[in-house]
Amino acid sequence: MGKGGQNGESCSSGCVKSEPRYTWEEVQKHNTKTDKWLVVERKVYNITDWVKRHPGGIRVISHYAGEDATDAFVAFHPDPNFVRKFLKPLYVGELAENEPSQDRGKNAQQVEDFQKLRKTAEEMNLFNGSWVFFGLYLAHILVVEYLAWANLHYFGNGWIPTLITILLLTVSQAQAGWLQHDFGHLSVFKKSKWNHIGHKFVIGHLKGASANWWNHRHFQHHAKPNIFSKDPDVNMVHIFVLGDTQPVEYGKKKIKYLPYNHQHQYFFLIGPPLLIPLYFTVQIMKTMITRKDWVDLAWSLSYYTRFLITFVPFFGFFGSVALLFAVRFIESHWFVWVTQMNHIPMEIDHEKHRDWLGCQLAATCNIEQSFFNDWFSGHLNFQIEHHLFPTMPRHNYHKIAPLVRSLCKKYDVHYEEKKLYNAMRDVVGSLKKSGELWLDAYLHK
């Protein structure tokens, strides 16, 4: 037992043995690969063995080892009462009575007010998805795919019809990417089972990717956004240096895999063009095969089979492969700019153990609302609301946004919203700033 902990005294007949009590100091010691505890609603759980069976993957739950995971637990699970059944066997005790509910000196009132805000959202039914919205959204994706085929069927495979088909397929792929994101976050149906089925259909059959690969990667990003070693989206495998801290660290250590002072320039050559057609495609296939994820592989192959059956009659096998690469190439630009404009210009650093509100707001910003921005970004222009409430259906973000702004204003938490062009420009500006910090540290420190 750690300081302040107590196991309860030995009881004679008729005496009720008290539950073990732990201090935060004791809980925080259990944050290693072989020993992991976390706290949910003041209850302490030993998740050391459970992490290997966690549906969201080992890493996402491990990122909260030694910490209070209450808000993250509620945010990721649409039905917390169901999930608590799995927590019962992991229970080891509770926080000592004199211990605060929040760890590391977090603002208890801010945490409490955010939890009240979530209850308000629940009372407003903002976590209920609209079948009409998502049905029409899926329909518009399928219609665009049909038009891509019909264009070739009626006008032939000349240059102009081919370019039109490439653009139509790019639209359908990008929009299917936003829809699979909805299913992956369990925000379409009330039952997780139906969301999982929808997710595998959209990301697998409509896009050729893997639901499990996406889940294990993306949930880490949401759990600890823009935090090195915990968010895979800021693991740039030494190609880029990000934020204000990493460039200086690399510079002082004389690390120079690439000329980072020019990263804002070579970003245009290896970032948007190659992420999906090269890096993601190879990583997804490798992950499915090495993990023997045959179900996801079958869904993925169904997409490629359908694509070839559809377009080989117009372009032949190699022509169809070239068509697919062209679509992936353009889609990759779309995806990168939308996903990075909300995060790269924001704070990127090592773990600071903020509360849920502070953690998400430090790493995300919004893009102003318009019909085009909503459609173009899959409502990820409401990145702040999405990160705070990842299971909330996207068509309700605009309803909760004013309440989030009000809460942020109360506690002086920075709530940033930009124009679309400015947000994209800031990606390049942020990379340039980080590159200059690296060069200065590399040359002078």
TrEMBL record:
Pfam families with a match to the protein in the record: Cyt-b5, FA_desaturase
Protein name, entry field: Cytochrome b5 heme-binding domain-containing protein
Topological type in the membrane: Multi-pass membrane protein
Subcellular location(s) of the protein: Membrane
GO process terms (BP): fatty acid biosynthetic process
Family: Belongs to the fatty acid desaturase type 1 family.
GO molecular function, one term: oxidoreductase activity, acting on paired donors, with oxidation of a pair of donors resulting in the reduction of molecular oxygen to two molecules of water
Domain Cytochrome b5 heme-binding: 19-96
SMART domains: Cyt-b5 (SM01117)
Residue stretches spanning the membrane: 126-148, 154-171, 266-284, 304-327
Keywords linked to the UniProt accession: Fatty acid biosynthesis, Fatty acid metabolism, Lipid biosynthesis, Lipid metabolism, Membrane, Oxidoreductase, Transmembrane, Transmembrane helix
Example of a GO cellular component annotation carried by this entry: membrane
Pathway it works in: Lipid metabolism; polyunsaturated fatty acid biosynthesis
